[in-house]
Amino acid sequence: MNVQETLLYLAADLFSIYVVYRFYSLFFEHSRCKKCILILGFLIYFLIDNVGFLCFQRPMINLVTNLMSLFALTFLYQGNLRLRILTAVLIYAVLMICDAIAYRILILMEGKDDIVGGMAANGLLMLIIEVIFEKYMNFRTGKMVTMMEFLYIITVPCISIFIVGVILNMAISTELIALATIGILIINIVMFFLLNHISGAYKELYEMALCKQQWEALSNQLSLQRDSEEKAAALRHDMRNHLLMLKRLADLKKYDELDQYFKEMENAAGTITYYVNSGNTVIDGILNWKLREAAQCGAEPTYTVRLPEKLNISDMDMNIILSNLLDNSIQALKESSGSKELAVSMIYERNILRIEIKNTYEGKVVSHHGKLITTKHSRIGHGIGLQSVEQVVQKYMGNIDLEYDGKRFCVTILLYLS
Amino acid sequence: MFRIAICDDETAVCGEMERFILRYAKKTGKEMDVQVFYSGEELFRVMKEEDPTCSIDLVFLDIELNRLDGIDVGKKIREELKNEWIQIVYISGRDRYAMQLFQNRPLQFLLKPLEKRDIITVIEKAMELSETQSKYFEFRIGRDYYKVLLSEIVYFEGNGKKIYLHTKRDTYEFYESMTLLEERFEKNGYLKIHKSFLVNDQYIKEYHPQSVTLLSGKDLPISQPQRKRIHEILRERMF
Questions:
Q1: Are A167 and A181 in contact (CB under 8 A)?
Q2: How far is A311 from chain B (nearest CA, A)?
Q3: Is A401 within 8 Å of B96 when comparing Cβ atoms?
Q4: How far apart are CA A142 and CA A338, in angstroms?
């Protein structure tokens, strides 16, 4: 290639790198460094890629250095190891397949070997794919990828890379190579759509389970209210008789019996286990339900609730936090044999909502770097519940703090509500 | 002498609280005086006409009063009487409240029936704050000496060695080291949210992840290095 062609080639390659950068933004939500460092990283990748090609011109080395560079780039973003491996392999697969297709199609169209044109077409093809992905998929819902899902996702592109490698080395016509690689590309794209669909369905399942919980809590709240209304109605109904009786006892100066009568009236009216009445139906519903459950486990729950009637947080988010954390606490209470304590505090002040849940526990706390992983008996999903709590806290730009000392476990959440 | 007022239309509540507070005063040897009001109008009238220098330090103010409710009374005290130093503790029989009550900078909000423990905590906190609030902050501009009531200071703004002292009405410009101010005020309910801003917590209307909003509506930023610290303070403080 002469100088002019080399420059064009490099320019086209730079464009491809730009598309790769866009791919990264699809997979990763946050970067770990400033944008200029990101750009620097991708430029270095560009250099390595082309230096490799121009100096060595051996495909195997290129494959290795390319993969390694892509993997290294993932460390500039926030994520876990699985996501990083996934991204590197997927992007490499796309790169490779697009390269094979673009190059071959161009040969078919122009009848000759056009490296520069091939590179440009490669970039364009990748851009088209990236835009399709961007528009129709939401990779980030699958941020927490389980091991099984990871294996499913990674198998197809890995094998595709291998197959494309084989095809490229076979002595068959260019048309066939082009068609075959297009076919493999289609398989990959279809598979991603499928996976995305599944993870969407998974999410819907979780949300349904959450709604069901909320419905149960509200239903419980309603029956508590109905209970208390009935008791109040009964008291009202008999009020006239009670008053006559009280007057009679007072007139006869039978003070001891008067006292006794008062006590009986109090008992008749006050035997509802109505814990919280903040005016916020979802919160009251969930707290009353869970606190009663805790009481049934043998704990005597204490609570402090100071909230205005309207809180700037959605019912769903409130449900996610309270249900998940309280389920954890109740589970810990069930498993502990010593004294069982549960203390819940929800206070709102000056745009901050502070939720604190303390419970006694026994055994080991499953946590990692100060973040709760999961409890095996989580009612909703496997670890999705706690991940959702973190997502909600992040949504309101708040913090979760955990403290435990072998006897008591304390979760404190601060949320900024506007 | 620490002066407490109780304003509640339920005479039983007033009576019980008065008895309890006087017993507590006797037990701890602290000098306390209790006045009782059965309506918001009466409290306001006495404060305006008979006690203009406002000797009352702390008022337990019921929100559900008969005509003028507790929130209106609080508003009148702060705005019409321009009284910034009296501590208001709202008490309510309903366990929910409206957000407007924060505009009056109450010290605390308690639910009836009041726990003895909460009453004591709130009185002690009010006494602690009163100690500092009746004090003045003195500073010099050129050859003139100025003094400003601590409770009227909204925030200090530092720019090099030049400090701007912002009160509700005025701004004073003088020279002092920000670090010295921080050392003195941080324990008195002031928060260092930024290397240039030292804010009186009582004038903060809302907290945000990266800023605070003052009662006047103005926003001040919380600098990156301070965020974690402020978060810790908030976490501990809200009980």
A1: yes
A2: 10
A3: no
A4: 40
CB contact under 8 A, B209 and A397: yes
Cis peptide before B113 (omega within 30 of 0): yes
A162: contact with B, CB 8 A cutoff: no
Chain B environment of A276 (Cβ under 8 Å): 95
Coil, strand or helix at A314: coil
Buried/exposed code over B184-199 (b: 16+ C-beta within 10 A; e: otherwise): ebeeebbbbbbebbbb
pLDDT band with cut points at 50, 70 and 90 for residue B213? very high
pLDDT at residue A259, as a whole number: 87
Query: B72-75 long-range CB contacts below 8 Å, 24 or more apart?
Result: B72/B40, B73/B7, B73/B40, B73/B43, B73/B44, B74/B101, B74/B104, B74/B106, B75/B103, B75/B104
Question: Residue A381's closest CA among A244, A217, A208?
Answer: A208
Closest chain B residue by Cα to residue A351:
B206
Query: Of A269, A268, A267, A246, which Cα lies nearest the Cα of A258?
Result: A246
Selection from A368-372, B164-168, B201-205 with the highest mean pLDDT: B164-168
Q: Could you read off the pLDDT of A126-140 as tens digits, one per residue?
A: 888 887 777 766 555
Distance of alpha carbon A49 from alpha carbon A42, whole angstroms? 10
Closest in A307, A401, A414 to B96, CB measured = A307
Tell me if chain B has a CB within 8 Å of the CB of A255. Answer: no
Quick check: A285 and A220 in contact, CB under 8 A?
yes
For residues A289 and A277, is the Cβ–Cβ distance under 8 A?
A: no
Contact A308 B95 (CB under 8 A): no
CB within 8 Å of A320: residues ≥ 6 apart: A210, A385, A388, A389, A392
Q: What is the rounded end-to-end Cα distance, in angstroms, of chain A?
A: 60
Which residues of chain A carry a pLDDT beneath 50? 141-143, 369-370, 373-383
Residue numbers in A near B97 (CB within 8 A): 306, 308-309
- Amino acid identity, residue A416? Y
Integer Cα distance of A357 and A70 in angstroms: 43
Q: How far is CA A203 from CA A154, A200, A381, B86, in A?
A: 21, 5, 10, 53
* Nearest-by-Cβ selection for A352 from B95, B97, B207: B207
Does A279 contact B95 at a Cβ distance shorter than 8 Å?
yes
Neighbours of B106 (CB within 10 A): 19
- What's the complex ipTM? 0.72
Cβ–Cβ contact A368 with B under 8 A? no
The answer to whether the Cβ–Cβ distance between A414 and B204 falls below 8 Å is no
Coil, strand, or helix at residue B100?
helix
With contacts defined as CB-CB under 8 Å, which chain B residues touch A357? none
Partner-chain residue, chosen from A279, A352, A354, that has the shortest CB–CB distance to B96: A279
C-alpha distance from A39 to closest chain B C-alpha (Å): 24
- Does this model's pTM top 0.80? no
A101-135 per-position pLDDT tens digit? 887 777 777 777 777 777 878 888 888 888 777 77
AA letter at A260: Q
B95–A306: do the CB atoms touch at under 8 Å? Answer: yes
